[in-house]
Amino acid sequence: MNPHDFLEVDRDLDDEERAIRDAVRDYCRAELLPHVAGWFEAGTIPDPHAVAKGLGALGVFGMHLEGYGCAGTNAVSYGLACRELEAVDSGLRSLVSVQGSLAMTAIHRFGSEEQKLEWLPRMAAGEALGCFGLTEPDSGSDPGSMRTRARRDGTDWVLDGTKMWITNGAVADVAVVWAQTEEGIRGFLVPRGTPGLSAGVVHGKLSLRASITSELVLDGVRLPHEAALPLAEGIKAPLTCLSEARFGIVWGAAGAARDCFEAALDYAQTRTQFGRPIAAFQLTQGKIADMLVDVNQASLTALRIGRLKDEGRAHPSHVSFGKLANVRAAQRVAATARSVHGASGITLEYPVMRHMVNMESVATYEGTAEIHALTLGRAVTGHSAFR
Prior knowledge:
The chain has 387 residues and is an alpha+beta fold. Helices cover 52% and strands 16% of the residues. The longest helix has 35 residues, at 236-270. GO terms for molecular function: fatty-acyl-CoA binding; flavin adenine dinucleotide binding; glutaryl-CoA dehydrogenase activity.
């Protein structure tokens, strides 16, 4: 039996999907894995633009989008890339998700042709970084209550407000900012260096440390009329982008769970106590079996939702199902793997504690477990418990 793919889930991939999986896995293990523990300990990515250029050359930014320098792959291929990225660290998958599934998707779906030509080729190549300004200090699970405002002044727009927990915010070349207007919620492209825009790095994080998280402050930011995304009207526009990013998390969480399981399995077979490997003890084997089930069920869930998405049959509730189930599975696997490692599990020599605390952020952003549970409840009962 293959402990790394017990149910042979990857056997259902086609040749192109396998090639993409292998290319991303090889790149991540060679170029990113040797550095990620140090980045996590430092609480930052020292040179995010260099990392972005490498990932851009690999072709993972906006890889599920068509044209403008994007690869145009299917959804499963994008999911596989997210799985391999998060098997290294959630911060790296988050960088790719925010760039491709949030910022680039917003421009690709809702932007003008001029906006697409200006930003998408550079973002796909990793030459420009983007961020997605939706969440606010007092508006997380209820983005419709955002306080950021955009008002018209002649032909210009003037934006005021604060965005919080913004991945890549302090290093982004363009921010996709969502604001309330007289006509409802609209999206705007705010280039770096625009007067009135400032970004501060959030320090003191105990999770997702190999990632740059920021606060965006917009103080009288004046934008030309052309800065507005012409097709982005209403709360459904940013939520559409969030669903794309959540799809990446469905796969990414499976990758983090797999990495924790593989680390624990290897450790249990090499760590000797009472004269034999701890893998030979019943309690350890019980833990290994529990992790094996969670990892393979997460892989099956991700692949099924990916196939539904490629068939045009995936509903946002399917993605909510995947995020809720797979993040919970990854949390269980990470905690169990940490226990298998004993005291060594709390160090950065092994990946399990890093994944364990990262999953706390992953469980919170892009919709908390509670929000996704209510989404599923609404889907199967027909009753909304949100309001």
